[in-house]
Every structure is written in structure tokens, then in C-alpha cells.
């Protein structure tokens, strides 16, 4: 990476070279973007760290858990952010949030082919709750600034932490979301729902329930994820590049159309007790077998029956 000395954290193991899920943030950046094109801003050597964690006796990361910069993907210039899943669950604190906001504001100014956000987060960092919540609002505003400038903002969710909390909301404010089967997307995470509503409502330890409710296959079927890819760097690279030059209009008409689609979905599936019932309602003949389908069989089926939010 052009701004760094050789970085051991970015060296790809054979498994990380194949799997987005298994890789750390720097390995993901190296695996997804064109070789030799990555330039990092505010790298760890500049030691821009959280001003709060040390006071609380908590460990700090020299990049505050997020890598930002510019690169090319399929030869097109992009700006990128990659959250580090291994540092505090990819959580958003003051510096982490400011780096995301600055990246998006720069995109509105420089107008690259896209902004690619590799989100892998449980949401706001509880140690910096107020600063983190403010950061989420600033990130959201910056997303809209980039979109208003005609820059597609593309989210990838395929990591161990999923995409939850405030950044789950931010993700749905972006133009496009690409997920793998391993990805998860929601506002509240499984443990939060269980703690607030009880295990009878949602058993966070039931991993099959978690994935069929929040996972990539379900989100793609109900139209919240626009792209679905295998958990490989090559597949995700192609899936992201497919959304270049495809900004979603940020207009009152587009928002009203999406609200109408959400209303139709609520009317159609609001009483469904389980995702399996939704899949059945969509026309999946054997809904309980859907989690077992490989990527080709799943996408062939999903592209026939999935919900659409753009009509």
C-alpha cells in the first residue's frame, strides 16, 4: 500500500485470500481492490486514536478500527473504508466516525466512481456512546451529500460482526448493499432483541434463526440487499463493480416509492411468524430447503421471486 511500509496485517493467508469473512480489514482491502492501487489516509503510523478509550483504561487501535483511503477497482477510482472486525467489534467511536464522515465528504467533492464501505460492526461503541451517536448522524448526512453529488455509495456486509446499530441504518441510506450468505443486516442485533423482548421472542443462540432473519439470503430475497455474492474476494469484487454508474436517485419521488414498497411488504408479510413463511409467500416451493441451496441455485430462484423496492 503506497502510504505504508510493508504491513504484516495486510498479508493474505491462503484462507483470507479466498474468504472475505475470514480476512481482517487490511486483508480485505488488499484482496478486493486492484493490486498496487491502495493509498491509505490517516494510517496507523499517524496515531490518530480515540481520545476516550485511554481515559477509560481500554485498549486503543492506532487506526481506531477503520482503514480509509482511495484505490481502483476494475480500473475505476473509488474511495473506501474497511472496518476492522477484531477491534471492539468494529464499533463506531469519535475518531472512527470522523474518518468515515471525512471520506464521504471528500467523495462528494472529488466524485470518484463509487464509495465502497466494508462494514463489519455491532454499531456505536458503548464506551463513547454520545460521541458515537453524533458520529452516526454525521456519517448519515455525509452519505446523502455524496449521493446528492451523484456518487454511488455501496456497502458490503459479509463479516463476522454483521452490520448492526447505527451503521445498519446508514447502510440502508446508501445506494446499494452487497451481501454474502455469511453477512447479516439489521438495526438491533440478536442479543439486543432477546434482552429487550425475551428469549421467547428471539433466541439469540439459535444461529439458524439469526441467519434466516437477518442473513444475506433473506435480505436479498426481500429486496434490502441489491447484490448477493459468494464469500470470495473475486465474487465480491465483481458484485461491487456491477453497481458503478448506477446511483439511485435521491429525490422525493424515490423516497415515496420506497415507502410505498415498504408498506406493501408490511401488508403482505407483517403477520408472518418466521422468515420461512415469508419465503413461502414469495413463492419458494420448498422454503425450508432454501438455506441449503448453493449460490447459483439460490440466486436463480431469488431473482425470480424476490421483492423489489424500486417499483
UniProtKB/TrEMBL annotation:
Domain of life per record: Bacteria
Keywords in alphabetical order: Transferase
Residue ranges annotated for the CoA carboxyltransferase N-terminal domain, each copy included: 1-252
GO molecular function: acetyl-CoA carboxylase activity; carboxy-lyase activity; transferase activity
GO-annotated biological processes: carbohydrate metabolic process; fatty acid biosynthetic process; malonyl-CoA biosynthetic process
Name of the protein in its database record: Beta subunit of malonate decarboxylase
Amino acid at each position: 500500500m503506497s502510504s505504508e511500509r510493508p504491513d504484516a496485517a495486510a498479508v493474505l493467508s491462503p484462507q483470507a485470500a479466498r474468504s472475505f469473512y475470514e480476512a481482517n480489514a487490511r486483508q480485505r482491502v488488499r484482496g478486493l481492490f486492484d493490486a498496487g492501487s491502495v493509498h491509505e489516509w490517516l494510517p496507523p503510523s499517524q496515531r490518530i486514536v480515540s481520545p476516550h478509550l485511554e481515559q477509560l483504561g481500554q485498549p486503543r487501535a492506532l487506526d481506531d478500527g477503520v482503514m480509509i483511503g482511495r484505490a481502483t477497482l476494475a480500473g475505476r477510482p473509488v474511495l473506501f473504508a474497511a472496518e476492522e472486525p477484531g477491534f471492539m467489534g468494529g464499533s463506531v467511536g469519535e475518531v472512527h466516525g470522523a474518518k468515515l464522515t471525512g471520506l464521504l465528504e471528500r467523495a462528494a467533492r472529488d466524485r470518484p466512481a463509487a464509495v465502497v464501505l466494508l462494514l463489519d460492526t455491532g454499531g456505536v461503541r458503548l464506551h463513547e456512546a454520545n460521541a458515537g451517536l453524533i458520529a452516526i448522524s454525521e456519517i448519515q448526512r455525509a452519505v446523502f451529500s455524496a449521493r446528492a453529488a451523484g456518487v454511488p455509495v455501496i456497502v458490503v456486509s459479509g463479516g463476522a460482526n454483521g452490520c448492526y446499530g447505527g451503521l445498519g441504518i446508514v447502510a440502508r441510506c446508501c445506494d446499494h448493499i452487497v451481501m454474502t450468505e455469511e453477512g447479516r443486516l439489521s438495526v438491533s442485533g440478536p442479543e439486543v432483541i432477546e434482552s429487550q423482548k425475551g428469549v421467547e421472542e428471539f433466541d439469540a443462540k439459535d444461529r439458524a434463526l439469526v441467519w434466516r432473519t437477518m442473513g444475506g439470503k433473506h435480505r436479498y430475497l426481500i429486496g434490502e440487499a441489491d447484490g448477493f455474492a459468494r464469500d470470495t474476494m473475486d465474487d465480491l469484487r465483481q458484485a461491487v463493480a456491477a453497481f458503478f454508474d448506477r446511483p439511485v436517485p435521491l429525490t422525493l419521488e424515490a423516497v415515496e416509492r420506497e415507502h410505498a414498497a415498504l408498506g406493501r411488504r408490511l401488508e403482505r408479510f407483517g403477520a408472518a411468524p418466521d422468515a420461512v413463511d415469508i419465503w413461502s409467500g414469495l413463492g419458494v416451493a420448498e422454503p425450508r430447503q432454501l438455506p441449503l441451496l448453493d449460490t447459483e441455485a439460490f440466486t436463480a430462484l431469488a431473482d425470480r421471486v424476490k421483492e423489489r423496492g424500486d417499483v
